[in-house]
Recover the amino acids of this structure.
């Protein structure tokens, strides 16, 4: 039978009440004797049991939701990739054309400036010729759209070895794996710490 939305809410309310009582018991707990230690063990076991129930209840909601999300992503992913690809192709071609026209305009400007400098072209003629050079405006309109060419600052790493220490993030997973396998890593130590592992009997 499929669980309704109301059932998990009612069940969660009941679990919240139980966990609140256990939290209060944990806060007021003082372990001074072996008997207190045994009481604490039973409290941990009860919490472990409630934790399992919380996980099951949560997954009864999140698993179907995650499945829906996975299916939606799978359904839209191909068309999103095509859309992004088509947009990137056009934007690249727009920038390539603008870059080509800008380079040609700079070359033409340089020729005109050289002729003015040599005295083979009058300044007023040069100004008229400069006005006729083809250029691509930074803002250009089509029939239904408009594009703007803007310069934005970007950053790329050209030498990772030269980066100051403050910008290096340790790969803690790799460090832990290698250190526990016996590899000596400068600046890392392997140590032991006691933890409680509880189970219901």
């Amino acid at each position: 039978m499929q669980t309704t939305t109301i059932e998990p809410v009612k069940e969660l309310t009941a679990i919240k009440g139980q966990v609140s009582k256990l939290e209060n018991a944990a806060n007021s707990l003082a372990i001074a004797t072996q008997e207190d230690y045994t009481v604490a063990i039973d409290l941990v076991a009860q919490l472990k049991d409630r934790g399992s129930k919380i996980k099951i209840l949560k997954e009864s909601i999140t698993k179907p939701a995650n499945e829906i999300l996975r299916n939606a992503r799978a359904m839209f992913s191909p068309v999103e990739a095509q859309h992004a690809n088509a947009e990137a192709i056009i934007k690249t071609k727009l920038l390539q054309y603008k870059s080509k026209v800008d380079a040609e305009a700079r070359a033409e400007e340089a020729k005109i400036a050289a002729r003015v400098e040599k005295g083979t072209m009058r300044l007023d003629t040069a100004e008229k010729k400069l006005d006729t050079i083809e250029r691509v405006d930074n803002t250009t309109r089509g029939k239904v759209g408009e594009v703007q060419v803007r310069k934005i600052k970007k950053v790329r790493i050209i030498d990772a070895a030269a980066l100051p220490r403050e910008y290096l993030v340790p790969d803690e997973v790799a460090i832990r794996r290698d250190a526990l396998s016996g590899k000596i890593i400068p600046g890392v130590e392997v140590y032991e710490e006691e933890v409680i592992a509880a189970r219901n009997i």
The mean pLDDT is 93. Residues 6-180 form one domain. The two ends are 30 Å apart (CA to CA). Residues 115 and 121 are 5 Å apart (CA to CA).
